[in-house]
Amino acid sequence: MSFLKRYLFYLLCITPVALGSCTQEKVPTQPVIVIHGGAGYITKESFTTEKEQHYTLALKQALDTGYAILEKGGSSVDAVEAAIRIMEDNPLFNAGKGSVLTNQKTIEMDASIMDGATGMAGGVAGVTIVKNPITAARAVMEQTPHVLIVGKGADSFAMKTGLTIVSPEYFYVNEYEIVYNNLGPHMHNGSTSNLLKDPDKFGTVGCVALDQYGNLAAGTSTGGMSKKLPGRVGDSPLIGSGTYASNATCAVSATGHGEYFIRQVVAYDIAALIDYTGCSITEAVNIVLDKLEKKNGVGGVIALDNKGNFAMQCNTPGMYRAYKKSDGSSDILFFKD
Predict the structure, then answer these.
(1) Mean pLDDT value of segment 282-287
(2) What single DSSP character describes residue 30?
(3) Residue 140 and residue 315: Cα distance in Å, rounded?
(4) Residue 160 in 3-state DSSP?
């Protein structure tokens, strides 16, 4: 082979910038999606066949909607938003239409989303007229230099952005009026002694996804705690507490008593354990939930790493949760055991 031919071969196949002729193509990642619909007093004794059917259908719809996007080559961010929107529109969950009431019988909703590929994130808190808070959170991430916008400012931003706006009455569901009337005043004294006795207490929804390009994303949406003080913000819209995603480690969405998840920075703590110790996703989740429980914090998390491994753990009697993988395996679960 002449010098000229050898040189051309070098340019085409050895030099990294050479047209990609001989560079190895990245093998597509197998997509995975995991969702949750809240953790709390979810027991076999409290479930009727009809109730199980309703929640099964609701979770399946959200799961299939998000996975269909991944299957068609869509992004993990698109899948997360789509799955959460389905649950926000379903009054079975404490997010969007089914949000619980404050102690003034108003509704204030929070949400956040994070892109593991870019590290960008967005959230809204205390919104009252935005039909899908998760979409508002994404708009904050993509259309502003900010991470979190709250209250009237968030509602105004959503209106100006052209998002779907509804009257506050849209969100009211009779079932939560009943729950409200049955709850005691423990919400305001910091006690967790009665939290596990409150049905439908934690209905926060969330999703984590891994797309075929190897990108992770996470999102969380909630109506907050029943009988909360107006203006209270939980962990759901706070990046690092209720939501976190990084392609280097994992994507996490949490549900539970938000004050404890904020203090323990739960979502980021899980990612940090993987980053600094190299432990598995399941090990990291178990360690963090154990720490949380020792601080009297209750709830659960879903977490998904960059290899498609996932965990769905809680320290409550149950958590609405489901997953779907590219190998066709999927499941919908309610109870802890």
Answers:
(1) 98
(2) P
(3) 32
(4) helix
